[in-house]
Design brief:
With 284 residues, the protein is an alpha+beta fold. The chain is built from 9 helices and 9 strands. Strands 2-1-9-8-7-6 form a 6-stranded antiparallel beta sheet, with helices on both faces. Helix 1 runs parallel beside helix 5 and helix 1 packs across helix 6. The chain starts with 5 loop residues before the first strand and ends in a 7-residue tail after the last helix.
């Protein structure tokens, strides 16, 4: 059995724990941890008065009126939209999910819903794609400009610390037999705000601790998940080549676990186990 390259950072260890050919300073896919960034952008734009979380989607995008879907619904996964946009495939699921395709789907947004808005939680990558497009439309900026200006810069991070297209030489991907690199999914289109960013594990650790523990940008935004009884503020992510868990507990415990491929459930369990066994951090 091959060892899955793994990088673990956390409050209980001074240095990263690295297994196999991982690297805490290389860019890796962060998958749906991107949603934390998108939710934070929503929070920041609302604080600036650019929009409100309860704006209907049609205020900012070409969706028909009457769907009842708001930006808050999209951020909280209560929009009623399905998990995936129609037309995804197994091999490279989002390759054809372009910005033009999203605009086509917006015209019939109400017909895509699997439940009325606000009635139940249905985790939705499609919903976050719509949310990201709405944030870009409301602000008049591209999504990556919003990431850099509203999240990275206030945290003291360089503008490309989280990017959809990091330099090829800085990327870390798993390899198969004979050292052949696995090709990542195409995540630079409409799905970007739902799961297309790359970052180093060290950057993920900085973002996690700043947003959840230090609350540098206010209370954690709508993109975070919350689980008791610890309680943990967290998010995970999985793509065709990577999985990540990032979570923190109010008493100061935190961890980022990133693995190149492998079972994403194993990644989640590793993160939760770390938080359970780590000691609470003394407050300064």
């Amino acid at each position: 059995m091959r060892t899955v390259p793994t990088c673990i950072l956390g409050s209980a260890d001074e240095n990263p724990i690295v297994t196999g050919a991982h690297d805490p300073d290389k860019y890796v896919e962060v998958g749906s941890f991107t949603k934390v960034i998108t939710g934070t952008i929503l929070q920041q734009l609302a604080g600036q008065g650019v929009l409100t979380p309860d704006d209907p989607v049609e205020r900012w995008l070409g969706a028909p009126p009457g769907t009842g879907i708001t930006l808050r619904h999209l951020a909280e996964h209560t929009s009623g939209l399905p998990r995936l946009p129609p037309g995804t495939s197994r091999r490279d699921p989002y390759r054809t999910f372009t910005d033009d395709r999203l605009r086509e789907l917006l015209a019939g947004l109400g017909l895509l819903a699997v439940a009325p808005a606000g009635q139940r939680q249905e985790y939705s990558n499609l919903g976050y794609a719509v949310l990201g497009a709405a944030l870009a439309a409301a602000s008049g900026q591209e999504y990556e400009e919003l990431v850099a200006g509203l999240v990275l810069s206030p945290l003291g991070l360089p503008p490309h610390a989280m990017s959809a297209t990091p330099p090829q030489h800085s990327r870390l991907l798993p390899t198969r037999w004979f050292g052949r690199t696995v090709k990542p999914w195409t995540m630079t289109g409409a799905v970007l705000p739902a799961g297309g960013l790359w970052a180093t594990p060290r950057t993920l650790a900085r973002v996690l601790t700043a947003l959840v523990l230090d609350r540098s940008l206010g209370d954690p935004g709508l993109g975070w998940q919350r689980t008791g009884p610890l309680p943990v503020v967290w998010h995970n992510g999985a793509t065709g080549t990577a999985s990540v868990f990032a979570g923190a507990v109010p008493d100061g415990r935190w961890t980022v676990v990133h693995r190149l491929s492998g079972d994403s459930d194993v990644t989640d369990h590793a993160g939760l186990d770390y938080l359970r066994t780590a000691q609470a951090q003394p407050k300064e």
